[in-house]
Amino acid sequence: MKKKMLVLVIAFALVLSVTALVGCGTEEAATTGSTGVSSDIQKIKDAGVLKVGVKVDVPNFGYKDPKTNKIDGFEIDLARQLAKRILGDESKIQLEPVTAKTRGPLLDNGQLDVVIATFTIKPDRLLQWNFSDGYYTDEVGILVKKNSGIAGLKDLNGKKVGVAQGATTKDAIEAEIATQKLSIKPNYLEFASYPEINAALESGRIDAFSVDKSILTGYLSSDKVILAEGFAPQEYGIATKKGNDGITEECNTMLKEMTANGEMATLLKKWNLN
Q1: Nearest residue to 230 (alpha-carbon basis) of 160, 158, 164, 180
Q2: Which end of the chain has fewer CB atoms within 10 angstroms, the N or the C?
Q3: Do residues 87 and 50 lie in contact, with contact meaning Cβ atoms separated by under 8 Å?
Q4: Which residues contact 133 (CB under 8 A, 6 or more apart)?
Q5: CA–CA separation, 254 vs 38, rounded Å?
Q6: Is residue 97 a contact partner of residue 56, using CB atoms and an 8 Å limit?
Q7: By the 8 A CB rule, do 210 and 143 touch?
Q8: Is 112 exposed, middle or buried (0-12, 13-18, 19+ CB in 10 A)?
């Protein structure tokens, strides 16, 4: 009898150990305290500031004016709205410049509370981070010199295409080439920022600049054109660290309310994005 009890005790202990190990291998979910505020939201309240990763090289979305050093844009206004909801003051935001390559790691290491930076919602990204509902839909486009002779995707065979590091643009182009069954092979060059890609296009180092069309509009000039062809429609979402469900829920509530009361339409018009 004693031997049977000992076996049961050991088996119970093993179950507890396995459960503990599984718990250690997953992100800690936000919990709700006695105040009714989730732990991830409370952390921001305690800090007294919302740390937001934003783009500073995407006109109309997040752009730092070199003359004033002020960062403005549609996504900056969304960040201010979120700070107002969580902290009661839209000025309590700390804007941190990010790129397509750095935004994810900065969320993971806790330097940022949220990322609002033309971050497209993709199935593989949903495994790594929380995303809000989409707040803007765009498609991948191609910017070229008017005298380049490039009129569409089919003309990119052997051409040098500039894309951003960490972006999904290259994959989107390759998927579209496969969909259209084109026998072409572009050469991709990766750059750290959009201004660098644009400079490469203007100097002739590359033949085409590819990223979301709304971003390309910020780099139009009299000698360049965005091709009519577009592909891979995708939505931008507000990203947070996996498990920070309280912030994600707050973002979704904010986006729904802004859409319902017309604030979203007003902002899109303000930044020429509608």
Answers
A1: 180
A2: N
A3: yes
A4: 237, 251, 252, 255, 256
A5: 16
A6: yes
A7: yes
A8: buried
Residues in contact with 268: Cβ distance below 8 Å, sequence separation at least 6, in sequence order = 74, 136, 274
Residues 6+ apart with CB under 8 A from 148: 207, 208
- pLDDT tens digits for range 34-59: 667 899 999 999 999 999 999 998 88
Sign of the CA dihedral running 111, 191, 220, 183 = negative
Phi, psi of 45 (to 5 degrees): -60, -40
DSSP state, 32? B
Q: What is the DSSP letter of 71?
A: E
Neighbours of 27 (CB within 10 A): 13
Residue of 153, 158, 139 lying closest to 217 (CA atoms): 139
In sequence order, the β-bridge partners of residue 62 are 58
d(CA 101, CA 66): 22
* Helix and strand counts by DSSP (H, E) for the chain: 10, 14
Distance of alpha carbon 87 from alpha carbon 48, whole angstroms: 7
- Spatial separation of the C-alpha atoms in residues 253 and 117, rounded to whole Å: 19
pLDDT band of residue 32 (cuts 50, 70, 90) is: low
Max CA-CA distance within the chain? Answer: 91
What's the pTM?
0.75
Contact at 8 Å (CB) between 152 and 229?
yes
171 Cβ neighbours under 8 A, 6+ residues apart = none
